[in-house]
Amino acid sequence: MRRRLPLGALVLALAWVASTLVPRGNAGAFDLATFGRLPVLADGRIKPLDTIARTSLLMLQGRQPVAADGGRELSPEEWLLDVFFRPEQADAYRIFRVDNADVLSLFGLGSGDSAGRVRFSFKELLPGLPELERQAQLAGPVDAAARTAFQRAVVELFEHVEYYSRLKYSLQAPDMSDMSAFLDKPGLLAAGRPGFEAMATFSMLRAVPPAAPSVRADGWRGVGQSLLETLSTGAVDPSVRLYAAMGVAWRATRPDTFNAAVGACRAGLSPRFDPAMRRCAFEAFFNRAEPFFTSLTLYVAAFLLAAVSWLKWPDELGRAAFWVMALAFALATAGIIARMWLEGRPPVTNLYSSALFIGWGAVALCLVLERINGNAVASAAGSLIGFSTLVIAHHLSLTGDTMEMMRAVLDSNFWLSTHVVTVTTGYASTFLAGLLATIYIVRGVASRTLDRTTADSLARMVYGIVCFATLFSFIGTVLGGIWADQSWGRFWGWDPKENGALIIVLWNAVILHCRWGGLVRQRGMMALAVFGNVVTAWSWFGTNMLGVGLHSYGFTSAAFQGLVAFVAVQLAVIGLAAIPRARWRSAPGPGAA
Amino acid sequence: MPQTRPSLLGLLTSLRLTVVLLVLSIVLVFAATLDQVHLGVWGVQEKYFRSYFVFKPVAGTGFLFPVFPGGYLLGGLLIVNLVAAHLQRFRLSWQKSGIWLTHIGLVLLLVAQGLSGMLQQDNQMRIDVGQSRRFSESFRETELAVIETTRADYDQVVAIPAALLADGAPIQHPMLPFLVKPVAYFPNAMLRMRAQVADAPPSIATAGEGTGIVATPIPVTTKQDEANWPTGYVELAGPDGSLGTFLVSTMLQQSEPFTYQGRTWRISLRARRDYLPFTVTLLKFTHDIYPGTDIPRDFASTIRLRSDDGRDDREVRIFMNNPLRFAGRAFYQAGYDNNDRTSVLQVVRNPSWRIPYVSCALIALGLLVQFGIHLLASFRRRTGPSPRDRAPGAAPSAAGAGLRPSPP
């Protein structure tokens, strides 16, 4: 029984993974799945409506499902349809997340009935919107980096309200309850001009495809724009008609008419847009399968298995941990490859994908280390990094679509795949060395499990990984210099992100030279390696918080407290390492000091 | 490290010094990164990296005191330390080849960075569609241009660096029949029409348009999206008396004309110019964005390049990540203006630009060789320990109790 444990764990995990990959049908009579796969142009790329729904909800309320009245839960598609076609209903859903108490006080919320809630509906916010706008205008001129928490929260909520309000203008004007009634009556149509103009101005997406697909996708038009053209030509675009029909059917709860319109819309795009539709169908499947979430859960399981293996059944549980981690890794790999295919880009293009890739690279190294050492230490470290980076990635995904278009400066697949991938691998390995060192220190101080063999094996791993990290962060940094020289004429510009990468290289060099020069032994090297975490976290996130320099496109502010807490923990671990070896619970070996 | 006595040589060659210098460099780079918010990237480079010491004003005294070693000093010491250590411990062996390559590359890289700091010129060329240009302009440096326009077929330009205006000493030049006396110089100023300022002080300028303008000095800005407007008053004086005091400013579009002894001149303060041995004509500028967004997708300038010697006359397309390198200068697509009618090219002149490429190749190769040797050794130990791996002089390894300092 015990010998079967690794296989059992793997089979169980596999079965669960398989269950997440099975395409799910529609829960109700409406063909929401097909609706979610319809392609539209938004943020410069063609994506399925499903992505619009999910990224909007993640951005506005930090999660995908929508809580409706009576405990009912709406799918992202149902919510999006309500926003488009039943806005008066959608306004009542509590989808605006507001954490800042001062901002809530602008609306008189946060106390009484609404005490303790963090999500509010558009209706609840409506009376306070003029004041919100005033406050946002006051905060607007302040540098993003210099804003107070209140100013940041005000600006963010204002942008969210604006985003939501514009979303309502995507397929029909919010005050036009039945747009299809307009389409065939020239008099009514002409009267609709102000509404169409508003749609053309505010719409977040372009749903009307061009006659023929083009590489640059600039032929897509918004429904409002298309209707304005109708006013002069008299011809209504078939897509406009079909979206209007969907609206009528959705309002009247008539699944058959709705499904017919969705089907016709889809059929109308084929075969011209087959490649785009295949991508959109796959993207909708990818969104629903959530491979990174599954992977995250598996990393937790792998970590628990590895941690328990140090106490009981080291062999069996250790191998189970390895295989579960390997499965999580395979799933994350598949997810990254899927993103690369969808984007047509190398793996790292923005902060979000750098988090995915740092986790991926560190886990890959851990798989190798675990095969060599087999004491579950690398499994524990790998699953912990895999888990943490996916959590970070999740938080980074809350700002909108994670597959953004690349600005002209960055639009170079060659440099993205060489410089960015190498330097990110350098980050990953520096983090891994720091984590392994943390395991060494914590196990040594707090438990009796750090025997000579384990300590030496950890020391070997940390040393090897630091070498690896030096190599990759150096080559990555240099490639960045060459890219900079090629694209804006200086090899090195002392930009904050460049400086961050340089500090990582220098710090790894410090560790190696300290060790080669005999300035530190095992314990000292571990303490230095832990500080590598601080240095890397600074380079990855801290430099973006300064809000200056060419690399500040990855600007983020919410992560600041997380960074401070992370640094504090690392310093505490270094403090532990400063306790003399003789007082650690694990008995000191003759070679350690 | 055989040296145990505290000799200077022992100190210069010690790994301890290397570690100290590396840690100091980290502190320097980190402090400079933080200070960028206040000083801007150029200010930081001057203060931290292109200096021997970082100076800080001491409150109350008005003096600047060195508080930290600067980039040149740390870089120089690292070079000394590296070279000394290698000369002292020179031993040619395969085991050390990686370390050698890495460190030679490193010295080159430091030298290249020092050279770039001293030699590199960053200019820009703002050019409208259809326009031709044969000079580029500095981003930060300004010059006082005194141009004689007497002859119809050419102009005679005397350019005086703004730093000399700030100095304040009168300037005599063989091509000018008068002295240029700096009266006042402001690195940044705001200009307003005299009529619009209620209680304006009396004008310093006595000639030209400047008499109708009030110049107020304002603090220098280091923000990337703001510009400084250097402004000054200069008096021109011949042996027979003053020609007048002129207001000069980079904010003034027109230069000031004047005549002296029957010759005509124009005077202006302008961005320092680098005249080119060729002419650039902007034929076309395109600026694409992704549909439905304001994210730039591509900028491109199509130019015609004609060299003075007649050897080159061709069309070139300069776009993001694709610069033009010609006559020791590199042209990059940097920006645009005027509703896409003006293209802004960055023009970089750096004779040492190739060195980093060589040094980086050396270092990368060195690191690969060195860690490759480690890896091989560790695999060999795994398959069966061989006594040769413990040979003296071999690079210390992490295996077993090998964490002690290696024997000399």
Biggest interface goes to: A-B, 75 and 69 residues
Task: List the uncertain runs of chain B.
Answer: 385-408
SSE run of chain B: HHEEHHEEEHEEEEEEEEEEEEH
As residue ranges, the low-confidence spans of chain A are: 548-556
Count of β-strands of chain B: 17
Portion in strands of chain A: under 5%
Broad structural category of chain B: alpha+beta
Please, how many helices of chain B? 6
Radius of gyration of chain B, in Å, reads 29 Å
The helicity of chain B comes to 25-40%
What is the topology, as strand order, of the major beta sheet of chain A? 1-2
So what's the overall shape of chain B?
A: globular
Which word captures the global form of chain A?
A: elongated
- Number of DSSP-assigned strands of chain A: 6
Helix content of chain A: 55-70%
Report how far apart the termini of chain B are: 6 Å
Mean pLDDT of chain B: 83
- Number of helices, where a helix is a run of at least 4 consecutive DSSP H or I residues of chain A: 25
Provide a compact summary of the structure.
By secondary structure, chain A is mainly alpha-helical. Chain A is built from 25 helices and 6 strands.
